[in-house]
Amino acid sequence: MDHDKWLVGLQFHTANCQRVWLYYVVDEVFDTTHAVPMAIQRANSDPKRVTRGGIQAEADQVEVQQIHRDGIGRFSLTRCSV
Question: What percent of the chain has pLDDT over 70?
């Protein structure tokens, strides 16, 4: 069984209260319930976290889209409920 690919967006606030979205492609999991924690783990281990004030990625909002590729190689996204 192949793993699906997911585009996970995490919104959080920086130390100076700006809203920032981080997007991660997650392809090692089968569903959204595993894709979101994987994206949060990546956000927290991101070396650029220092530029975000070193804060943990506590997502105020999460959006997940499934990545599809058709027979001729075109990509599309389908929004998923979280």
Answer: 83
- Tokens matching residue 35: 């894709």
Domain span holding position 66: 5-80
pLDDT in tens, 5-14: 999 999 887 7
**DSSP string across 14-55:** -TTS-EEEEEEEE-S-SSHHHHHHHHHHHHHH-GGGGGGTT-
- Please give the C-alpha separations between residue 52 and each of 21, 33, 48, 71, in angstroms, as whole numbers: 11, 26, 7, 40
Cα separation of 46 and 43, whole Å? 5
Report the domain count for the chain.
1
Contacts of residue 62, defined as CB under 8 A and 6 or more positions apart, other chains included, come to 8, 9, 10, 11, 36, 82
Q: pTM (2 decimals)?
A: 0.80
